[in-house]
């Protein structure tokens, strides 16, 4: 009985010692998404996509990260909206870069085949 009572007291003390979560904590910026600034997607879109679109993705990714760092102490909706806007633009440019590259890879052989087909009719 004494051991059980001792364990209960220790658990209760441990619960009392835990700090309460602060109402003004800045976890809302990290809740936007797991990779909030899409840095990895931007780098992959430069390597595995059209580089000009990938560079735009990286540009917005850097803007999102720098805005979050610069304004991390401000708890206002405008800050969250700016970071969210830059993050969404980085994601769109990154995905667009990879999709455009895949479309070009698929269309190029079709265009070459169509060109040879047209040339045979000309002769």
From TrEMBL:
Coiled coil: none annotated. It is found in: Membrane. It holds the Pfam family CD225. GO terms for cellular component: membrane. The chain crosses the membrane at residues 40-62, 93-119. Keywords: Membrane, Transmembrane, Transmembrane helix. It comes from the Eukaryota. InterPro entries: CD225/Dispanin_fam. The keyword Transmembrane helix applies. Belongs to the CD225/Dispanin family. This is Si:dkey-16l2.20. It comes from Cyprinus carpio carpio.
């Amino acid at each position: 009985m004494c051991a059980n009572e001792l364990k209960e007291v220790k658990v209760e003390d441990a619960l009392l010692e835990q700090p309460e979560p602060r109402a003004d904590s800045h976890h809302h910026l990290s809740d936007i998404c797991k990779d909030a600034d899409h840095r990895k997607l931007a780098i992959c879109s430069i390597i595995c996509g059209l580089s000009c679109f990938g560079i735009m993705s990286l540009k917005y990714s850097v803007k999102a990260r720098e805005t979050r760092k610069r304004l991390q102490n401000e708890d206002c909706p405008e800050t969250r909206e700016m970071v969210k806007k830059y993050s969404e633009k980085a994601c769109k440019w990154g995905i667009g870069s990879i999709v455009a590259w895949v479309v070009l890879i698929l269309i190029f052989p079709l265009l070459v085949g169509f060109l040879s087909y047209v040339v045979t009719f000309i002769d």
